[in-house]
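Tokens in:
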């Protein structure tokens, strides 16, 4: 379970890093709070952060539930793919939003696998 917790912490620190990048972009491109529009590059950073938050709501509980039923090291590896996917998503989305596909795929597939594994593990435990 410790590996699972470490990957969740890594994902949370990644999210904090994305928040720092949004703050820097806000300064660099002169987008004064509370505005969230006004510069396209800033908006890209902001969207990455918001999209990551939307996925964390699925990712964290899916990791914890899945690790209750399956090998924590394997669950952590699946979670690590998510973290890498988010980094690729940031890179792709900021440089050209059309190139975010791989990062999105590497973020969503692990979440779906974790959710499926959680359901299977839960049902097996009931039998």
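Residues out:
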């Amino acid at each position: 379970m410790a590996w699972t917790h470490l990957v969740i912490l890594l994902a949370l620190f990644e999210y904090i890093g994305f928040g720092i990048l949004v703050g820097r972009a806000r300064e660099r491109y002169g987008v004064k709070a509370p505005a969230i529009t006004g510069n396209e590059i800033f908006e890209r950073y902001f969207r990455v952060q918001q999209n990551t938050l939307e996925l964390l709501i699925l990712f964290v509980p899916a990791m914890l539930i899945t690790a209750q039923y399956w090998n924590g090291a394997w669950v952590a590896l699946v979670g690590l793919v998510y973290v890498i996917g988010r980094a690729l998503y940031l890179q792709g989305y900021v440089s050209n939003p059309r190139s975010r596909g791989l990062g999105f795929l590497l973020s969503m597939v692990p979440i779906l696998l974790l959710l499926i594994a959680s359901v299977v593990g839960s049902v097996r435990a009931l039998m």
